[in-house]
Write a structure and sequence with these properties.
This protein is α/β, with parallel strands linked by helices and about 425 residues long. It has 10 helices and 20 strands. It has 3 domains: about 40 residues; about 210 residues, Rossmann fold, CATH 3.40.50; about 150 residues, Ribosomal Protein S5, domain 2. The chain has a 9-stranded mixed sheet with strand order 6-5-7-8-4-9-10-11-12. Strands 13-14-16-15 form a 4-stranded mixed sheet. A 3-stranded antiparallel sheet has the order 2-1-3, with no helix packed on it. A hairpin with a 6-residue loop joins β9 and β10.
């Protein structure tokens, strides 16, 4: 057996490895994403593994399925997104833009767990213990949590093994480093090694570990994609930094659904759960206004009523602007082309702006019809009747396709007084009186 050291270049986006540095990743197509990484490989000589030394597999039916009770966080929206609470021994990755509230949510979580007699260790590589104490006081949190201001992985692991807490919060994973791994702190090699060691620790001690991760300017978690594949759950905290609304969603969850979302509002005292999320997105809907249409979207089991706003204006430029906030810009271009072809209206000389009120990001095709209706309303300068609500996918021929969970959407809309559901087979049948 001997050690071999070699240098490879790893793509930060997809973890593709190559012996030579390249400008463009051949796997994912990302530019300038390769980082140098020195790895050690252990080569065993032929015959070093004797016959009969293989691990014996087991039948799945023979595995005892002990029901492990989840740890309730005390934050209802967080428990909902996690699928019913934190699973002991799981590793959760929480990402989000700088200043969005990741550390605030983590500190609130630590206090609530301590209040429920669940021991927590808060490991911070970004703040000192004094800074964390000041933030704890600002948020009016009173629980006396255990804090470790350290960036060395081995020291952090030794502390975790000594105190054996129920949960550990690492803020942030990019600041942790190990002398056993090469490369710079926050690099591909360090992140992969640190995450792997923490996952092994979580499974061995049956302790839940929450890793806080940074997000790149493209909105992706910083570091190689392999980190997201390694952990059990990946959460994203989204929202406008200057706004108060925060949306917590999961992009991966081995122990629950990935369709649920949690809605929070940022206050001086931290993140507060929003019981009626639709109220955050609906303002001034009592008086109908042109360029507006309300839709019902499904986020997990929640029905959210969202206001879609549109503005059309005669363009003075050679190429009219098409701007979308909270809605896919390419989808907007497609809908405009369908409207021109199907309805015969000239939008080629119009600047078109579409906005999803409240800073919400819409990816569901059910928003197609309300976007078309909002644009028509702005174009003709007429408002849709009070209580109008619409949802449906618009096809290339202008037909309106049905979407899933229509009964739930309708029920949620009627609860808030939106009884005028638009039911048309084609956008040709839209009648703006």
């Amino acid at each position: 057996m001997f050690m071999a050291i070699k240098t490879v270049y790893t793509c930060e986006n997809c973890a593709f490895q190559t012996p030579r540095c390249q400008g463009k990743c051949p796997s994912c197509g990302e530019w300038n994403s390769f980082q140098e990484q020195t790895i050690q490989t252990t080569k065993k000589s032929v015959g070093s593994i004797s016959f009969g030394s293989a691990v014996k597999p087991v039948q799945l039916s023979e595995v005892r399925q002990n029901k492990v009770p989840r740890i309730l966080t005390g934050i209802g929206e967080l428990d909902l997104v996690l699928g019913g609470g934190i699973v002991p021994g799981s590793v959760i990755l929480l990402g989000g833009d700088p200043g969005i509230g990741k550390s605030t949510l983590a500190l609130q979580l630590a206090n609530l767990l301590e209040k429920a007699n669940q021991s927590v260790l808060y490991v911070s590589g970004e703040e000192s213990a004094q800074q964390i104490a000041m933030r704890n006081q600002r948020l009016t949190l009173k629980e006396d949590i255990l804090v470790l201001a350290e960036t060395d992985l081995e020291l952090a692991i030794a502390t975790i093994e000594q105190f054996k807490p129920t949960a550990v919060i690492i803020d942030s994973i990019q600041t942790m480093s190990s002398s056993e791994a090469g490369g710079v702190t926050g690099g591909v090699a360090q992140l992969s090694y640190v995450t792997n060691q923490l996952i092994r620790l979580a499974k061995r001690l049956h302790v839940a570990i929450i890793l806080i991760g940074h997000v790149t300017k493209e909105g992706m978690l910083a570091g190689p994609k392999t980190i997201e594949h390694m952990v059990d759950c990946v959460l994203y905290l989204e929202g406008e930094r200057l706004g108060n609304l925060r949306i917590l969603r999961s992009s991966k969850n081995r122990f629950g659904s990935i369709g649920e979302v949690g809605v929070f509002e940022m206050h001086d005292t931290g993140l507060v759960e929003v019981a009626n999320a639709s109220s955050m997105f609906l303002e001034n809907t009592e008086t109908p206004m042109s360029g507006s249409c309300v839709t019902a979207l499904m986020e997990g089991n929640k029905t959210l009523l969202i206001e879609i706003q549109a503005l059309t204006n005669t363009s003075s430029a050679s190429y009219p602007r098409r701007v979308a906030s909270g809605f896919d810009a390419n989808r907007l271009q497609l809908l405009l082309a369908i409207m021109q072809k199907t309805l015969g209206i000239n939008l080629g000389n119009q600047d078109v702006y579409v906005n999803v009120a409240g800073g919400f990001k819409v990816s569901e095709r059910a928003a197609d019809l309300p976007v078309v209706m909002a644009i028509l309303s702005s174009y003709y300068g007429k408002a849709w009747p009070k209580g109008t609500i619409a949802y449906g996918e618009v096809g290339l021929l202008g037909e309106v396709r049905l979407v899933s969970q229509a009964q739930k959407r309708d029920k949620g809309a009627k609860k808030l007084g939106f009884n005028n559901l638009v039911k048309v087979k084609s956008i040709k049948n839209l009648n703006l009186k």
